[in-house]
Each structure stands twice: as structure tokens, then as C-alpha cells.
TrEMBL record:
InterPro entries linked: Gal_mutarotase_sf_dom, GH, Glyco_hydro_31_AS, Glyco_hydro_31_C, Glyco_hydro_31_TIM, Glyco_hydro_b
PROSITE patterns (alphabetical): GLYCOSYL_HYDROL_F31_1
Range of residues in the leader sequence: none
Phylogenetic placement of the source organism: Eukaryota, Viridiplantae, Streptophyta, Embryophyta, Tracheophyta
MF-aspect GO terms: carbohydrate binding; hydrolase activity, hydrolyzing O-glycosyl compounds
Name by which UniProt lists this protein: Predicted protein
Organism of origin: Arabidopsis lyrata subsp. lyrata
Residues in Glycoside hydrolase family 31 TIM barrel domain copies: 124-496
Keyword list, A-Z: Glycoprotein, Glycosidase, Hydrolase, Signal
Length: 746
């Protein structure tokens, strides 16, 4: 019952992905003979090739057989610690408990695999529309600092939806309390009323450790309800930011009720819009069996620190604390109870921590999701550091404590793509790095990547210099550029959120999800897709003003300058210009992309007119394009159709477009048209546009080929734009025109 081993052989040309959470310096594709250990730990994300905050014992296998791709996935549903040895031609599990409970997902495409996987573990949670860009810092010490940050974003004209507080708002780092000196209740409520009227939101941190303090109401009620994890019949004592703490046992139904009541009480005090549950691996500043020291203050006060100040002794006298097989915990075979709960402690109904350790954050996310839903009656937003199989059904995830380094920026892409495979699509890393320092050039490049993370948040450590995006002039320019585009793409991103909720489809995807037969992209970890067709090719190295990007076969249109097109016949690498404030984002052919005009927050942005960008294969006389759009009241707990408050639209080429709610389409852009660019006889719904009461502007521009295509010949492709339309989005419409071809025909 403490050691299970099983092996399987693999074709040497299989490409494997998964087994997390860890930071993989060599990219998303698993590398033979690198360590893959699964056991949730409070280990910073910049530590490479070691077990981190989450446990996901699942992998995807992608094979190419005579030019045809086949994907499948395997889940070992087991919460015990394990080492997974991948040797290229074989895979071996070494598990220290539980049972072999394998699930196989037959694919055959990567999207099929994730659909099948999330149908078992739970579909990803619906996210509110406002959850798409955030600013946070440990060190926002009072309400005035929060006001300053919000005002500076407004002055810099950088979009922002959510302002966060780390533990600064608490009284002595105690959960569900308010520091009334630095966050006077009336002043905080006035600030929240102001930002709520603007359409902005407020999220705060919450750690699982409950301070052991006889005058602390949360602790008193927890003791009265007997909600804490036990060791030898007593609540297990640990240390976190408030000092001595007990940990709630979220496997206990009484804990779930107590937790919900504490969230209700706090929400009545401070009308928060979401919760950030941190340190839930679970993290402990001490190891072993501890007592509160007599005659000294613990902690001593002053600046926050992680030094253990309890009196502790090691626990090694049981086979659960010192098992016969030592997994490679924290990368050096650390004892299982190192800086966490001892594995011989007990949860509700006799469940041993040895078996339940890696599901602590998962169980807390379930309880927190239920509590927020009960309290607010709205769609909950929860961000969790620790995750397990199924966590995506309840929470978003950020990748933890990274560094302001180029390597952390690069690794963030692989981790983000892995979590899409894990069924946690709302994921991202701390933009500009959590730990100090971050060079200005790196912060420029990071926002150009982070603006396209599904979960996009700028965050920094207590001891770090200020890193808000307006702190540097060049970074502010990059932020206005990249985040400006993100906010124009909000309807597209929100539709991807809906697709994720319905089918598990990742929001951010490796290129092989859309091009599974193209083996060149199997190991690609420096570019990624949003959805099936929007490709981000960022600069990830210091001093570079060009980027080499892989373009699979087809036509790719630059989303910032739609006159630019890259045509690739069989797939090619192309060197793209990328000055400091420029990120290369390309839209694939056969796509209809819904966009709006942006704004300084999502409330403002989502009321602006729509544009539809239609991409046909360049210079093709025939083509099709499809797109999707989902809109709803994002405060509704459920994201679904048929409730009278949601709309789903399938777009097909230029044949039919629909939506509702009185919003209008003001502009249509069509890319990749063959001909001379001379447009005539334009009709809207069968009538010449000259009959329209409002002047409609028509323009055409020849598209510039970044790389001359292999078979370009003499033909040209054009972009045609119609502006000044006032078409209700819920009405079918038809636009037609004539364009002279190169041989004189129309």
C-alpha cells in the first residue's frame, strides 16, 4: 500500500506533453530522462524541473504515422506522491500509495482528447467578462495607494478591470479581517463604490492558515465547529504569515459550512468581487510537530518573513512520514512533511494527509466557489495557486512566484499551454515577474506576451520595485499597444471562454492543436495560438528586434496591420521585424474574427460597435471563413444558452452574420481578395450603398507580402474595408461588390 510501479513501452517518435505542475526549460514537449515528480509543494516557479504547486498525473501522446496525426491521453487518477520516469521508449510510474486507476482518452485529435478528458474531470468554470486584465502587488499598504494605481492607469490610458490587494489589507495577516488603520472602512467602501461605478472590480488574497488567537472570531468559530486538520487528536499547529495557525479541513462538511459563513461575514464588511486563494499546497514555514514558544513573540513583528519561530521537532517515527520509497520531492528527495503538513496527520473521517496532501488546494477551491456563489448569487471568480485534476471546474490559476528574468518569461508559455491540456484554461503568469528586479526591456516584452495570456495580471513582490505598467514610458507604450488589442479582442476571448466551458477547449493552445499533421510544430514553445487561428509570435530574448516565427501552411494576416500577409505553401520559418513596442500577432485564413473598439475597461469596451474581420486564403478565387460569438450577462452563475439572456452566433463567410442587443456592426474588413483593388457596384441587402442615408466609406489596399510566396506569380491580393455601416448585430445582412480582376473581368 506504499509502493506501486507500472511501465509501458512507447514508440520513440511519440511526442508527450503533460505531467505537471513544473517549469520546463526545454519547452512543452517532455524530454527523456528529465525528472517529473508530482506532489504539491510551495516551491517557487523559477525552480526548474521540480514538483511545484499542482499535481496533474495526465499526459497527451501525439504521433504522426505516415503523415497522419493521432493523439490520445492517459490519466492516472491518484493523489499520492509519484515519480514518473520517461526514457523516450518507455514510461514508468513509481507511486507511493493509492491504486492504479487509469483512464484512456482515444482522441484522435488534440481537441478531441481535451474534450473527452474534461467530460470526465469537469468542464472549466465560466469566467466573468471583467476577469480579463488585473493589477496587483504585495505592498499596496493603504487605500490611497489603491486610488493612486487606478488613477495612474487612467492617466496613462492603459486598460484595467481589476485592482487587487495582497495581504496588506488584513489586520495582522489574519483571514477575513480588515486593517482599520490603513484601510478605514468608510474610505475603502467609498473607493469600492467609485470603481464599481466605473465598471471595475476588487479581489483580495486569502491564505488557508487561521491564526491561533483566542480573541479572533474566525478562530473561535472554527474551534467551536471542530474544522481543523488533526494530529494525534489535536489541531495540527503550523506557522504562516499571522504566526501560529491551524489549517481548515475542507474534506469535512462542517468546514465547508463554516468557511462559507466566514466568507459571507467578510463580504458584508467588504463587498469583494472575487477571492485569491494562495499558499494552499499547503505551505508551512515550519516542519514537524511544533508548539508555541513561551516567553517570546512569534513572529517578532516588523517586515514579513518566512523564518520558523515555533519550537519544533521532526516527525519520522511512522511509515507515513518516512515511506520506504523516497520520491524526488522539491528536487532533492526532501521529507514529505518538509514545510507542509506531516503526512501522518488526519483529515475528516480518518483520511490520512499522506493520501490527501495534493488535493488540499482543490478541496479549498470547491468550498470557496460554493461560498462565493451562495453569497453573491453571481458567477464566482477564484484564483488558486494549488491545483489538482478537476480544479479548472472551480478556479483559475496563475503559475506562482516567478522571477523577472528572460527564462521565466519563456517558461511561462510552456506552463500556460500545459494547463490548457490539464483542463485549467484560465491561466497566466505574473507579468514582469514577481521577484525583483525586472529590466525595462524585459517588462516591455513581457506585457507583449502577457496581454495574450488567458489570465492576464501584473503582480510583484513586497520587496520588489514598483512594476505597474505605467512606471516606464516605453512599457506604457507597449501596454497601450498590446492591451489595447486585447480589449478589442474581448468578444473573441470571451467566446473562447464559452468554448472552454462547453468542450474543454484550451483558450491558449500549442500550434499542433490546429496543425496536428505538421510535425515541425510538435515541440514549438515560443509561439502559441489563441483559439484555433490567432497566433502570437513574441520576442523572448534580450536585445532582439526581430523574431523567427514558424508559419504553418496558409495565409496569415497581421492583426495590427492587416495589409501585411505571410503566405506559406508548405510551412516555413519567417524572420519578422519586432521593434521594442511591437508584438507580431497573425490571424489565419478562413476566419471571421469579431472585434470591438476597445476601452479602458471591459464595461466600456463591450458597449462599442463591432467589427468583423474576414480572412480568405490570399489570392484565392474561392474561399470560406467561419467564426463564432457568444455574449451573455456575465453575472449569471451559469454560462449557457436558452436562458433569454445569452446569444450565440455562428458566422459563415459573408453570407450571414447575426447577434442581438441593439449593438451595431460599424465596419467590415475582408482580407485576401484577388483582383486589381478597384471596387464598384457595392450593394447592401440588394440595394446600392448610394441609397443609404449615412455615407459609407469604401477603401481598398494592396497587401504586402512579408515573404514572397513560392508561387506568387503576377497576381495580387487586396484588403477591402467598408466603414460607416449601421447594421444591427442581430440582423442578417448581405454585402456584395464587383472588383476588376487582372484580366479585366469582374
Amino acid at each position: 500500500d506504499q509502493y506501486l510501479e507500472i511501465s509501458t513501452s512507447l514508440p520513440k517518435d511519440s511526442s508527450l506533453y503533460g505531467f505537471g505542475e513544473n517549469s520546463q526549460p526545454n519547452g512543452i514537449k517532455l524530454v527523456p530522462n528529465e525528472p517529473y515528480t508530482l506532489f504539491t509543494e510551495d516551491v517557487s516557479a523559477f525552480k526548474l524541473n521540480t514538483d511545484l504547486y499542482g499535481s496533474h498525473p495526465v499526459y497527451m501522446d501525439l504521433r504522426n504515422v505516415r503523415g497522419k496525426s493521432y493523439a490520445h491521453s492517459v490519466l492516472l487518477l491518484n493523489s499520492n506522491g509519484m515519480d514518473v520516469l520517461y526514457r523516450g521508449g518507455s514510461l514508468t510510474y513509481k507511486v507511493i500509495g493509492g491504486v492504479f486507476d487509469f483512464y484512456f482518452f482515444a482522441g484522435p485529435s488534440p481537441l478531441n482528447v481535451v474534450d473527452q478528458y474534461t467530460s470526465l474531470i469537469g468542464r472549466p468554470a465560466p469566467m466573468p467578462y471583467w476577469s480579463l486584465f488585473h493589477q496587483c502587488r504585495w505592498g499596496y499598504r493603504n487605500v490611497s495607494v489603491l486610488e493612486e494605481v487606478v488613477d495612474n492607469y487612467q492617466k496613462a490610458k492603459i486598460p484595467l478591470d481589476v485592482i487587487w490587494n495582497d495581504a496588506d489589507y488584513m489586520d495582522g495577516y489574519k483571514d477575513f479581517t480588515l486593517d482599520l488603520v490603513n484601510f478605514p472602512h468608510a474610505k475603502l467602501l467609498a473607493f469600492l463604490d467609485r470603481i464599481h461605478k466605473m465598471g471595475m472590480k476588487y479581489v483580495v488574497i486569502n491564505d488557508p492558515g487561521i491564526g491561533v488567537n483566542a480573541s479572533y472570531g474566525v478562530y473561535q468559530r472554527g474551534m467551536a465547529n471542530d474544522v481543523f486538520i488533526k494530529y494525534e487528536g489535536k489541531p495540527f499547529l503550523a506557522q504562516m504569515w499571522p504566526g501560529p495557525v491551524y489549517f481548515p479541513d475542507f474534506l469535512n462538511p462542517k468546514t465547508v459550512s463554516w468557511w462559507g459563513d466566514e466568507i459571507r461575514r467578510f463580504h458584508e464588511l467588504v463587498p469583494i468581487d472575487g477571492l485569491w486563494i494562495d499558499m494552499n499546497e499547503v505551505s508551512n514555514f515550519c516542519s514537524g510537530l511544533c508548539t508555541i514558544p513561551e516567553g517570546k513573540q512569534c513572529p517578532s513583528g516588523g517586515e514579513p518573513g518566512v523564518t520558523c519561530c515555533l519550537d519544533c521537532k521532526n516527525i519520522t517515527n511512522t511509515r507515513w512520514d518516512d515511506p520506504p520509497y523516497k520520491i524526488n520531492a522539491t528536487g532533492n528527495k526532501a521529507p514529505l512533511g518538509f514545510k507542509t503538513i506531516p503526512t501522518s496527520a488526519y483529515h475528516y473521517n480518518g483520511v490520512r494527509e499522506y493520501d490527501a496532501h495534493s488535493i488540499y488546494g482543490f478541496s479549498e477551491a470547491i468550498s470557496t466557489n460554493k461560498a462565493l456563489l451562495d453569497v453573491q448569487g453571481k458567477r464566482p471568480f477564484i484564483l488558486s495557486r494549488s491545483t489538482f485534476v478537476g480544479s479548472g471546474q472551480y478556479a483559475a490559476h496563475w503559475t506562482g512566484d516567478n522571477q523577472g528574468t528572460w527564462q521565466s518569461l519563456q517558461v511561462s508559455i510552456s506552463t500556460m499551454l500545459n494547463f490548457g491540456i490539464f483542463g485549467v484554461p484560465m491561466v497566466g503568469s505574473d507579468i514582469c515577474g514577481f521577484f525583483p528586479p525586472t529590466p525595462e526591456e524585459l517588462c516591455n516584452r513581457w506585457i507583449e506576451v502577457g496581454a495574450f495570456y488567458p489570465f492576464s495580471r501584473d503582480h510583484a513582490d513586497y520587496y520588489a520595485p514598483r512594476k505597474e505598467l505605467y512606471q516606464w514610458g516605453t512599457v506604457a507604450e507597449s501596454a497601450r499597444n498590446a492591451l489595447g488589442m486585447r480589449y478589442k479582442l474581448l468578444p473573441f476571448l470571451y467566446t473562447l471562454n464559452y468554448e472552454a466551458h462547453m468542450t474543454g477547449a484550451p483558450i491558449a493552445r500549442p500550434l499542433f492543436f490546429s496543425f496536428p499533421d505538421y510535425t515541425e510544430c510538435y515541440g514549438l514553445s515560443k509561439q502559441f495560438l489563441l483559439g484555433s487561428s490567432l497566433m502570437i509570435s513574441p520576442v523572448l530574448e534580450q536585445g532582439k528586434t526581430q523574431v523567427e516565427a514558424l508559419f504553418p501552411s496558409g495565409s496569415w494576416y497581421h492583426i495590427f496591420d492587416m495589409t501585411q500577409v505571410v503566405y506559406s505553401k508548405n510551412g516555413k520559418r519567417v524572420t519578422l521585424l519586432a521593434p521594442l513596442n511591437v508584438v507580431n500577432v497573425h490571424l489565419y485564413q478562413n476566419t471571421i474574427l469579431p472585434m470591438q473598439q476597445g476601452g479602458l475597461n471591459s464595461k466600456e469596451a463591450r458597449t462599442t460597435p463591432f467589427s468583423l474581420v474576414v480572412t480568405f486564403p490570399a489570392r484565392s478565387s474561392e474561399g470560406y471563413a467561419t467564426g463564432k460569438l457568444f455574449l451573455d450577462d456575465d453575472e449569471l452563475p451559469e454560462m449557457k444558452l436558452g436562458n433569454g439572456q445569452s446569444t450565440y452566433v455562428d458566422f459563415y463567410a459573408s453570407v450571414s452574420f447575426a447577434l442581438r442587443q441593439g449593438l451595431v456592426i460599424e465596419r467590415v474588413i475582408v482580407l485576401g481578395l484577388e483582383g486589381t483593388g478597384q471596387v464598384s457596384e457595392i450593394h447592401l441587402n440588394g440595394s446600392p450603398i448610394s441609397n443609404e442615408t449615412k455615407r459609407i466609406e469604401v477603401s481598398s489596399k494592396e497587401q504586402k507580402y512579408v515573404v514572397v510566396s513560392e508561387d506568387k506569380g503576377e497576381s495580387k491580393s487586396f484588403m477591402v474595408e467598408l466603414k460607416g455601416l449601421e447594421i444591427l448585430v442581430d440582423k442578417d445582412f448581405n454585402i456584395s461588390w464587383k472588383m476588376a480582376s487582372t484580366n479585366g473581368a469582374h
